[in-house]
Write a structure and sequence with these properties.
alpha+beta; three-stranded antiparallel beta sheet; 150 residues; 16% strand; 7 helices; two-stranded antiparallel ribbon
């Protein structure tokens, strides 16, 4: 485990004699063998627990929100749901381009659940719902927040 190459949870458990180790033990082992800057850790945590801004009754991921772009979308479409959908759209397969479609979908499901818990806790989910979109033809996986049905 000390050759600084990525290793899976299963690899970690095998290397430790298949002892009952938690995923937190795995995280600690990866961190101990892979230098990650504190800024990366914070940015990664915010992927799962982002700050949310509400504009006109719709939730937006603060990190993705651009007032000028929002105004452009609203002027072009007059559709607040459309603007919310596109401004919150994040391509998971673009962010983590080495993931398979199945892996990206699994990750997107977890992120959507986290975003929905935040929406529910902070806004009673009235401002939109996080959803993942898996396009099996292209292999692309996205996540967004929207009030419209997909």
């Amino acid at each position: 485990m000390h050759d600084h190459k990525p290793f899976s949870l299963a690899d970690f458990q095998r290397a430790n004699g298949n002892k009952k180790l938690s995923e937190m033990d795995y995280v600690q082992a990866v961190y101990a063998t892979t230098p990650l800057h504190f800024d990366f850790l914070i940015s990664y945590a915010r992927l799962f627990s982002p700050e949310i801004k509400v504009v006109d009754g719709r939730a937006f991921i603060l990190e993705l929100f651009d007032s000028e772009r929002h105004q452009e979308l609203m002027a072009a479409t007059q559709d607040a749901d459309h603007a919310q959908y596109w401004m919150n759209l994040l391509e998971i397969t673009g962010l983590f381009d080495e993931l398979t479609t199945e892996q990206a979908t699994e990750l997107a499901k977890i992120i959507a659940a986290c975003w929905n818990r935040t929406l529910l806790a902070e806004h009673e989910s009235s401002c939109g719902e996080a959803r993942y979109i898996a396009d099996l033809d292209s292999g692309e996986v996205f996540i967004t927040i929207t009030k419209q049905s997909l």
